[in-house]
Automatic annotation (TrEMBL):
GO terms for biological process: methylation. Residues 44-163 form the Methyltransferase domain. It comes from the Eukaryota. Pfam families: Methyltransf_31. It comes from Trypanosoma cruzi (strain CL Brener). One of its GO terms (molecular function) is methyltransferase activity. Keywords: Methyltransferase, Transferase. Belongs to the methyltransferase superfamily. InterPro entries: Lys/N-term_MeTrsfase_sf, Methyltranfer_dom, SAM-dependent_MTases_sf. This is Methyltransferase domain-containing protein.
Amino acid sequence: MSKYADPDYWEERYRSNDTTYDWYVPFDSLEPILRPLLQPPEQVRVLIVGCGNSRLSASLYDELNIRKITNVDVSPTVIAQMERRCKNMTEMQWICCDLVNTSPEKLLALLCPNDYLFDFIIDKGFIDAILGGHNSFHNVYTVTKNLSRLLKKGGRFLSVSYGSPETRMDHFRRRRLFFDVEHKAIEKPMFNSTATTTGHYHVYIMTKLGEKQTAIAVGDAGAALDGTTVSGDSDDDEDDFYDRFMMQTTSPTMAADPSRIHTL
């Protein structure tokens, strides 16, 4: 198991290093994507999952004038550190919560106490960390289902990942998530003027649809390479989803022609 999937690792890391750090990309790299989606800023309710000690929420507050921001992390230490660090941002919330093991009912009560669902959810590396742990496919499905429940219809879930579409799209397209998925690639940041681009990170933007819209979208875009429906899953076919996923990502056809991986 990757250490990044272990809550104890993060708690120890934050206890020993009270600072800020942004995984993958800084706010400046995401701002062109986020700004047009987070409108109007005074009305948008944003949830940041696995917030850690990132400056992302502070940048949204200062640069985009978004005030209704809820930050969630499994580490009580980092929540306390960031709440203290951002104490002047009085409308921002910091909540310690285990998104993998907390029931949907408790999550709704904790994060949406007045039945106000979120307009936008942001993940920067959180899904990647879960995928490095035990029962990773099941845990990602549990978390993404819970996040879908916390989103308004028409709301968006943006996930920043190192994982390419062939390793992430199927997770986000599962039928019970009710997501339409768009993929964008962004260049890895360069840390000096003479450096050359070394690759890309991936941004997945999920828009929550209604159930009927999801059925139509899956009918148009959800066909797997073997003719089955990628997102046509139920709560009872976890093993089938895993087997189907592995068959697709290791198939000779996929290896020979990566362009057959569908991205919107």
